[in-house]
Amino acid sequence: MSLLGNIAATYVHPRRVLRHLLSAGVREDRALVLAMGVGAMAFVAQWPRLVRVADASGEDLQMLLGGSLLGLVFILPLLMYVLAALSHLLARLFGGQGSGYASRIALFWALAAALPLMLLDGLVGGFIGPGPAKIAVGILWCLAVLVFWTAGLIEAHFSPQSGSRHA
């Protein structure tokens, strides 16, 4: 299935999509591209908000974009790897049988699947600005990530197939 098809399917059957992604085998190259892609799209999602901030405050837009680029494209993926490792250790503590790779894909895919809401959050932040709409979309985005990540971790660590996934 295509990337957009998988994203749409995640909103209906998140565990099934993660099962499909994990059935392709251990592919660290795909995990890294997914993490970097999430960072790149998060950077794009920030553009409208950063333009609004630069316009309102008089700050240099290029400096704001540069800082956002560094943080989201280069540092965020590293933090995602650390968070995935911590979630893997926590799942193992509670008897999970999945691999570290499965934990990484669960987190990276949860963030990737929630990208449409992240982009909406950026648009609301740029065109409407702070307020109830921005808060509501931000909460919706956070809930989507948590639901997708939790479903992914359950599939990765506690499903009958999780013991057969090694890495």
From TrEMBL:
Chief place of localization: membrane
Location(s) in or outside the cell: Membrane
InterPro entries: Yip1_dom
One Pfam family recorded for the sequence: Yip1
Membrane protein topology class: Multi-pass membrane protein
Alphabetical keyword list: Membrane, Transmembrane, Transmembrane helix
Transmembrane segments: 31-49, 69-94, 106-129, 135-156
Domain Yip1 positions: 10-157
GO cellular component, one term: membrane
Name this protein carries in UniProt: YIP1 family protein
The organism of origin for this protein: Pseudooceanicola spongiae
